[in-house]
Amino acid sequence: MELSRIIGIKCVVLAFLWTLTNGDTNVSCIFMETCMLPCSSERGSDAIIHWFQLSAGNLFVHLFYDGHDQLAVQNQRFRGRTSLFPDQVSSGNASLLLTRVKVQDEGRYKCQAITRRGIKESFITLKMDAPVREVNIEKAENRIICSSEGIYPEPVLTWSTSRQTVFRSTTIVQQSGPNGELYNIKSSVIFPDTKQDFTDMTYSCTVSTRSNNQTAILSNRNLKEGIAKAMVAGVIMIAVILGLIPICCSKFNSKMHQSCSVPVSVLPAVETGSVELQSHQAQQVPDAAEISSRLDLVLTEKTSEELKTLIAPGHNNEEDDLLLKPAAEPTEM
């Protein structure tokens, strides 16, 4: 009786340990960004969540139970880059957050959620993309060069022109990045030497991957317009510089002239022959020739006044008399 009851209990327990397996879910992640791998579980506070990377040999990615992360046996490649939503695990959210996604993270993952009601497994295929962000196109002599860098997976480059023509192209693809996981692509075209006019042609270069594509366009007409605009700007700049030179010289000469001028307030007055203070009202500053003329006139008037004083009647200065009297004739011996 006791044995049959134990067997019955075991049968009941085994009846509830069912496993539900979902089909693969494809997830696209961007290089060095954060990506979420979806997974769900049955509700319950006793959930145990296991994450594995199957494609890399069942690498242990993340483990969660007893309400906490258990990362003692986590693979070194995932250290510091994985996390769950701990406050949502009891509600059935077992999704994994993976940060700084790398090319090595690509592959197939398994999420295993264990509760008292059973085991639920989900499979996720992660694809990593480094999309085409920029395409550069330029003209170098008789070649048109197109390039783009930091792309994954290996990109494809195609050329097109506005008119049908035959040209040769050379494309080089190189791996780059810390571990050589990204791709750089560069291509050039050389047009044949013909008499056909290619001056108005437009060249298009497109770099494509599975996630996106970018196109760059180069037109000879745009190149000519750019050169013409640059020439016009250069001419305008030269004209402005040449126009500023006379103005600067004029201001320089004006400052030099003012530094050689004497204010009217300190010039001798012509009417009285004495120095008088002038009013503080603004007056025109005379030039050097006018100053010299006024000084000569003042000196002439002062000399005339002194001579008149010397020859005036009643002047008793002996030294002055000696200057005016003729010298005495010599006495005969």
From TrEMBL:
It is a single-pass type I membrane protein. Residues 1-23 form the signal peptide. PROSITE patterns: IG_LIKE (PS50835). Residues 37-113, 144-219 form the Ig-like domain. It comes from the Eukaryota. SUPFAM superfamilies: Immunoglobulin. Pfam families: C2-set_3, V-set. Gene3D superfamilies: Immunoglobulins. The chain crosses the membrane at residues 230-249. One of its GO terms (cellular component) is external side of plasma membrane. SMART domains: IGv (SM00406). Its main location: membrane. Keywords: Cell membrane, Disulfide bond, Glycoprotein, Immunoglobulin domain, Membrane, Receptor, Signal, Transmembrane, Transmembrane helix. The keyword Hydrolase does not apply. It is found in: Cell membrane. One of its GO terms (biological process) is T cell costimulation. This is Ig-like domain-containing protein. It comes from Oreochromis niloticus (Nile tilapia). The lineage of its organism: Eukaryota, Metazoa, Chordata, Craniata, Vertebrata.
